[in-house]
Amino acid sequence: MIDTVSELEATQTQQNEVAKYLYLIANKHIPVKSITYHSKLRKSYWNPKALRVYLEKGDDKIKTIADIIID
Description:
By secondary structure, the chain is mainly α. The chain has 3 helices and 2 strands. The chain has a two-stranded antiparallel ribbon with strand order 1-2.
């Protein structure tokens, strides 16, 4: 799915949720190890090794972000 992201379509609601997520990472400095954000390029990058660890063990920071977005 990550490799074919340009082919995915997202609803407006999904786009809004992603915008909130990126805002929390970039502006509220909630670090997520599986994603690296380059502020000057305004672009996020996947960290493949950290992403594998997240998929195996989870990440409390992602739960924090999800809790903020859902509230």
